């Protein structure tokens, strides 16, 4: 059995052997893009290299990139616990060509890795191409994929763009068929969103530049950007369907089960999955300098942490749970990501503090929620004011309340929530008028958004302590 670490290493070694520089993962807080909440793909650190604004000493690179998709355009928070394939934190394996090789090489490079080095059975692989990308279609055909398993897709799923302007181009995605015991249809069918045919690798062919809204030109030197989810490919290689059954995730789930004295696969199965996932995103975010707060990135972190805490509560934990799982995560992933070990003490402290603080209001808030929904049934709506009270008085992020009600099929009245929020903000503004505090507060948040969340002095403190 290949461990997740082996799969990661084999990927990097393979592309190194094929002339790629092995580049370190960039931090989860993007350095070069203030508009992006978190690094959510391998190409993020190379954005300016693709546009030509930045030069690097190599034209081929490979990475295993830490990614978080829990806010902004890519948000998989609500998928966690429900699909077999989504995490909020995952590792994206990638190979990149900056005006070096193109489709003719990128497709065989990918195909040889998965069918030869990784040894996946060819008959279980499906590929998609953008509907008019005959070039990619022909390359796949030539390499031996039967036409019946090359699907032409016309939606934006198979056309990638950096933004309204900039590099763009068609994609080709590789899917693995996990077999007919699992619900779902092949790509391009209405059932494609099931978990039977799982997308493992996305190859982006950057061949155009969108100059203005109307004008698109061909790039003289097209580029390649690919991304494969480490957990998804590892699942395939370990003969598992579910990402949460791979060695790495399983170790976290077992730790969560041990620490809460519950069965990892019993009634609390979903909660263990959520805890394992959210533990990873929380710890990696803290290691990269994000701390829980009420704004911006810090608030996304707080939402993730609090969601996990509710699940710990569901398991019956009376004491903080998350911080006790940190050593397991560090032993699983600390070698590949040393920043985790360096920040271990800070991570554990932050989790414990947040959990201890939230515990008091979590229990009371959940009681209020129980009472408010006692007579409700599927399809009913929780009044927005109640959700707002939970948010304002008990520190429940809106999505925590939604997550709590989802299994019962109860929704939150979002308009009502927004109205209550707006009313409270108006009140607060009135109260501050004239004092000048509101303005100071705003500036302070802006500075913190800009700098505070990204600059973190913990490493220095830690290493200084380590030397004593
Ligand atoms: P999906 O359609 O399954 O949500 P995607 O098309 O959004 O995936 P991409 O943006 O193409 O994913 O990312 C490249 C690769 O990263 C995917 O092929 C997949 O292997 C992996 N990946 C994407 N999102 C996640 C996630 N939330 N958790 C784990 N792996 C992911
Ligand atoms: Mg997705
Ligand atoms: Mg997809
Ligand atoms: Mg994709």
Strand and helix map with partners:
Blueprint (H helix, E strand, L loop, with lengths): L3 H14 L3 E2 L24 H5 L8 E9 L20 E9 L5 H15 L7 E6 L3 H10 L6 E4 L5 E3 L4 E12 L19 E14 L5 E14 H8 L9 H14 L8 H19 L8 H19 L11 H8 L4 H5 L1 H30 L7 E2 L1 H11 L3 H8 L5 E2 L1 H19 L4 H16 L5 H10 L1
Parallel strand pairs: 1-2, 4-5, 10-11
Antiparallel strand pairs: 2-3, 3-9, 4-7, 6-7, 7-8, 8-9
The chain binds adenosine-5'-triphosphate and magnesium ion (3 copies).
Note the total helix count. 16
Question: What's the mean pLDDT score?
Answer: 91
**How many whole angstroms does the radius of gyration measure?**
23 Å
Q: What hetero molecules are in the model?
A: adenosine-5'-triphosphate, magnesium ion
Task: Note the quaternary state here.
Answer: single chain
Major sheet details: 9 strands, mixed
Order of helices and strands: HEHEEHEHEEEEEHHHHHHHEHHEHHH
Can you tell me the overall shape?
Answer: globular
Query: What structural class is derived from the secondary structure elements?
Result: alpha/beta
Strand content: 15-25%
Question: What is the straight-line distance between the termini?
Answer: 41 Å
Helix content: 40-55%
Main location: cytoplasm
GO molecular function: alanine-tRNA ligase activity; aminoacyl-tRNA deacylase activity; ATP binding; tRNA binding; zinc ion binding
Protein name: Alanine--tRNA ligase
Subcellular location: Cytoplasm
